[in-house]
Amino acid sequence: MELLNTLYVTTPESYLRLDNDTLRVMLEDDTRLRVPLHHLNTVVCFGRIGLSVPLMHRLAQEGIALVLLDDHGRFMARLEGPVSGNVLLRQAQHRQALDAAFTLDTARACVAGKIKNTRQVLMRGAREAKSDEDRAALSRAADDLAASLRALPGVADLDTLRGVEGEAARQYFGALSRLVKPDLRASFNMSDGRNRRPPRDRLNALLSFLYSLWMNDCRSALEATGLDPQVGFLHALRPGRAALALDLMEEFRAQADRLALTLINRGQLRAVDFQEREGGGVLLATEARKTVLVAFQERKKEEIQHPLLTQPVALGLVPLVQARLLARAVRGESEPDGQRLGYVPFITR
Amino acid sequence: MAAEDLEPVALSALQHWAYCPRQCGLIHLEQAFDDNLHTLRGNAEHARTDQPGVETAKGLRVERALPLWHDALGLNGKADVVEFSRSGTPYPVEYKHGSRHKAADIAACDEVQLAAQALCLEAMTGRPVLEGAIYYASSRRRQPVCIDEALRERVRQITQAVRAMLASGQLPPPLTGPQAARRCKQCSLHDRCQPETLGNSTLRALRQHLYEPD
Question: How far is A338 from B199, CA to CA, in rounded Å?
Fold first, then answer.
């Protein structure tokens, strides 16, 4: 597996066209960028971007995904090439979604992945905390998450599971601003916990943006694997919602949180990089988005040791690895001894 | 079952099945295909042979990319090259980009595909096809293959097995043991198949400790 680049086009009124074997980004009559197509895995366009039909044909032919997002990073559309759509796998998925035991088992694994990974964020923060107060609060929250994790095997239905998850998230976000350096906390506090649509503080605005990037990658990974991104297990079916992509993304949220904290604590993002709108909504400014996108792309290139693979793999490919493991669980594939193990999320150390 | 009711099996599926049933399932059942160095080289090689056409050399009529089928067995596909002698006897030549695999059992997978082409040509022309050849582009060797009864029986058995898999919709399990060690590494579908994550004690352990805090 090779991690190819994602081209994010954020400058409004940019125009993308095909130029032999390269993609050319134009702004008015100037060429701003040329990218060889064989370096690309995905092209993501934010908002008002134009592109030529010959380019669309070529992207489809090469199996390069074209994803259109609105100005806020919300998914609008995706151009799919001919090699996609595995009807048998989707059929199995739809069957499994009707199987209460499989649904609960998979949903529970997704929540476990999320709780384990976010708990690692808190424990690492506690180890590195500069004040006793922070250390105590972070350890307390980590203990709460441990309790939530232990409660999971006993959960008998999805509603209870979602309750446990919600409570764990509340504890986690209640402690998360303690991972921001003390002198930056005035600008990046999260005193109201997680909020969105719109986010109402800078940390929430940054998390929302990073989550939408991970979400998009998880969705693409599922599509590439042939799964239906709308039919989820933990997240209920709702028209327009990519429920399975949300399920898969749970285990990657901690990755987004870690990157957000790094960007803030290293001063790569400052208070002025956010816009406060009338009424209290907060948005990441356009220029600052580029900083985040570059950092996100860099982070995805970092190689990690996946517990199940024999070779190191780029973090950006882990959603694909996990989507394939999920496909295996959905197909009901068994171990050589006939035992079915179910889905195993990606757990970081 | 009447011949026209048989779901056709692609000739290439027989080679895939002989190499690894799961590879065959991923390609022909799930329609997955990933390129690697081997497949890209193969594509480049076939770009040359896949041009349909006729030419005459040494009194032979040479057909490239010739459509083949066998109604009774329910096979269809294409032959890279078929040479017709003056008397009209067909001689199929399958092009492979590499050189002949050192392991006989792996090289034999290509022979199954060639033999299936021979059976198609027999049914299509009514002439016995007792020999064909595999041309290895890298080594530029042409290896004659005798289409004997054992090979024919293998074609019939594999055709049945592939058809049963397609009908069941079930993806076969990955190879294990020494076969996996020798075949999986060169497979373009390796990343998609994840053979090493099945029957893996790590997966089991991860699943077992999923609900325990570290």
Answer: 10
Measure CB to CB from residue A347 to each of B173, B176, B206 and give the nearest one: B206
The answer to whether residues B38 and B97 touch, using CB atoms and an 8 Å cutoff, is yes
Chains A, B: CB contacts within 8 A come to 77
SS (H, E, C) B105-141: HHHHHHHHHHHHHHHHHHHHHCCCCCEEEEEECCCCE
Crossing angle (nearest 10°) for helices A202-225 and A286-301? 50
The annotation status of A39 as a binding-site residue, yes or no, is no
CA angle, residues A175, A179, A181, in degrees to nearest 5: 135
Partner B contacted by A109 (CB < 8 A) = yes
pLDDT tens for A178-207 read 999 999 888 888 877 777 778 888 898 999
Is A165 annotated in a binding site? The answer is yes
Asked if the domains A6-79 and A87-331 are classified in one and the same CATH topology, the answer is no
The SS3 call for residue B24 is: helix
Residue whose C-alpha is closest to residue B187's, from B38, B45, B46 = B38
Answer whether A344 sits within 8 Å of B176, measured CB to CB. Answer: no
Taking CA–CA distances from B170, the nearest residue in chain A reads A331
Q: What is the tens place of the pLDDT at every residue in A131-151?
A: 999 999 999 999 999 999 999
Peptide bond into A198 cis (omega under 30): yes
For the domain spanning A6-79, the CATH number is 3.100.10.20
Residues of B in contact with A146 (CB under 8 A): 213
Between strands A30-36 and A75-79, the pairing is unpaired
Q: Is A94 annotated as a binding residue?
A: no
Sorted by sequence, the CB contacts under 8 Å of residue B110 that are 6+ apart come out as B15, B94, B96, B134
3-state helix, strand, coil split of chain B in percent (to 5) is 45, 20, 30
8 Å CB contact of B173 and A83: no
User: How would you class A241 by CB atoms within 10 Å of its CB: exposed for 0-12, middle for 13-18, buried for 19 or more?
Assistant: middle
Q: Note the pTM of the prediction, 2 decimals.
A: 0.79
How confident is the model over B50-88, as pLDDT tens digits? 555 555 667 788 888 889 999 999 999 989 999 998 888
Q: Give the gap in angstroms from C-alpha A302 to the nearest C-alpha of chain B.
A: 19
DSSP A273: G
Q: State the ipTM, two decimals.
A: 0.75
Compute the half-sphere exposure of residue B127: CA atoms within 13 Å on the CB side of its CA. Answer: 13
Domain chopping of chain A, boundaries: 6-79, 87-331
The one-character DSSP state at B8 is: P
Q: For residue B78, give the 3-state DSSP assignment.
A: strand
Contacts of A309 in chain B (CB under 8 A): 196-197
CB of A202 within 8 Å of a chain B CB? The answer is: no
CATH class of A87-331: mainly alpha
Do B127 and B90 form a contact (C-beta atoms < 8 A)? yes
